[in-house]
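haha ok so turns out i had the wrong file open the whole time. this is the CORRECT one, sorry everyone. sequence first:
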Amino acid sequence: AYLTFEILPGNVAPKKIQNAALSHKIVQALATLGQGKHQLTLDIGVSAKNTPRFPQFAEVGFEFDNSAGADLAGLAKVYAKEALGRVRMPPRGKKDRRLEAKMLKAIKTNKKWSEKPLRAVITGDGFDLNRHTLSGAVVGRHIWGAVAVKRKNGTCSIFRIRFYQDKTRKGWAAPVLGMVAGNEDIECKNVKK
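then structure:
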């Protein structure tokens, strides 16, 4: 059995590339090599978050020939622009406009955030409870969300954030930022899409 894998898309328009983000990373790495012929090795394996890397399945050696001096840095910019244009807010896991408004307020009132929050989306399908280690009593709850922000330089980004709420005698406290799990850039015009 054979698996055909194109490391760099051939003569294809950027809009037709299936994984523009991956193509951007590959071209960006190759652009650092410069003009000429280079011997490269591609390791094919499997890895997952929070697990050790599994043994590789294959190692493929090949020659990368850029004797003609192709503008790979320029091509990387084209792929990066295409990849950025495809980024959208993640889908809602749970619809609750009031909670989303509270998430935005938690960002606005946090002194460590200088970015302007634009939109919040609940990405979790519900709350997970936090329990006291000894008694097992519920002490709080958390839910995952994504918040789009506008930076001072005019660009936008999506942050994946776990929001936390303390349990009170009357119900739940206002959500606060619990943990930021990562971010990615998004075109500002795509925040509302």
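Helices lie at 20-31, 72-85, 97-108.
again sry for the mixup
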